[in-house]
Specification:
358 residues; alpha/beta; TIM Barrel; 27% helix; globular; disordered N terminus
């Protein structure tokens, strides 16, 4: 399950604008990985990607959304995963303040994953950035299912390389090479500042045909580390007013800028994190989109499709026994409110155009 830890800084002298990084602590025993070569033919390949340290700043007008294939329930998987947290005395508490319109689903369901990819494609998003916790993880085992469903809806797959146990720059580079064999070319590395920039530069320097983004606002550090671009992910810490400065600095050193927009943040039921970014009936989301477009972003990343424990999800929600949906967002109610954030996303993806035409 998702657990938050304290503030982590980059360790780079003079970079005092670094905010608290949030780190996912590994969960339990991993399930064996499935054989994923069988779905290679289903994957839509991202063409024309630059090398990891030689990314162009030419905009694609692309939007990408962070996606979590880690949910389980007893009916399908024999146990719960990522829906509940354990409190004192062993009590199990539902760890989201919202409630999914699909119920407490399993990410191993073909029907559920296909419907989720349909949602994403319908919102005008082009790329699904799949959370990945290393070889042999539950997320690795479910990757073929997500890839096949994404291909049905014309979506591309990217990988969100999480801080799995023992992750190093060298192991990350090896992971990227292996995942490239599936036709994947975009990679997002969460919290890379846990390792020195020199180690990242050495590991990423040998990669070809991959765009690798680092989750950081330290532009000089990202350039020294050999990343081709950067993204923010954390919509609790990094709000829209920082995007213009971030993208200007990134472009000045030849990096792609992919700031992350999100509807809000509230992880208090799941973690000890007390940061709250209220949704304001949709205004928080709209403000971040405006800021990202105004910043002349190369790509816009969305946090998230379904990170329910942190309250950043835009997946359809409904009210249910003490949990809320999106009632009142943009003045919508009932069934219309359930999909309010997907509908608003479609509005913004339609307005986001390549750099120089916004």
């Amino acid at each position: 399950m998702l657990v938050r830890r304290g503030t982590i800084t980059s360790g780079e002298a003079g970079e005092r604008h670094c905010a608290a990084a949030r780190v996912r602590v590994p969960r339990g025993v991993r399930t064996p990985a499935s054989i994923i070569a069988a779905v290679i033919g289903c994957v839509l390949v991202l063409g024309g990607a630059a090398g990891a340290s030689r990314a162009s700043t030419q905009s694609t007008g692309e939007t990408a959304i962070f996606y979590y294939p880690w949910f389980s329930n007893p009916a399908r998987d024999g146990t719960w995963a990522h829906w509940y947290v354990e409190r004192a005395g062993g009590a199990q508490v539902l760890s989201t303040r919202f409630y999914p319109a699909r119920g407490l689903y399993s990410s191993s369901s073909v029907k559920v994953v296909n419907a989720q990819m349909q949602d994403i494609a319908g919102a005008g998003i082009r790329t699904v950035v799949v959370s990945w916790w290393g070889q042999g993880s539950a997320e690795d085992a479910r990757l073929p299912l997500v890839m096949a469903a994404a291909a049905r809806w014309g979506l591309r797959i990217a990988i969100h390389i999480e801080p799995y146990p023992g992750r190093t720059p060298a192991s990350t580079a090896a992971d990227i090479v292996q995942l490239q064999s599936l036709g994947i070319t975009d990679f997002y590395v969460y919290n890379p500042a846990r390792s020195p920039a020199t180690e990242w530069a050495e590991a990423l320097g040998s990669l070809e045909g991959a765009r690798v983004f680092g989750q950081t606002t330290l532009v000089g550090w990202a350039k020294a580390a050999g990343f081709g671009g950067l993204y923010t992910y954390d919509v609790g810490a990094w709000m829209g007013p920082t995007f213009a400065r971030l993208c200007m600095q990134a472009h000045n050193v030849g990096l792609l800028c992919a700031p992350s927009v999100g509807p809000g943040f509230d992880a208090r039921l799941a973690t000890s994190d007390e940061v709250v970014r209220p949704r304001l009936d949709g205004e928080t989301y709209d403000r971040m989109w405006r800021s990202a477009i105004h910043a002349r972003a190369d790509l816009i990343t969305i946090t998230s499709y379904n990170e329910w424990q942190e309250g950043t999800q835009i997946e359809p929600a409904r009210s249910w026994t003490g949990r809320k949906g999106y009632e009142g967002a943009w003045g919508k109610h009932g069934r219309a409110a359930e999909r309010a954030y997907l509908d608003d996303t479609a509005h913004w993806t339609g307005r986001f155009h390549p750099l120089g035409t916004q």
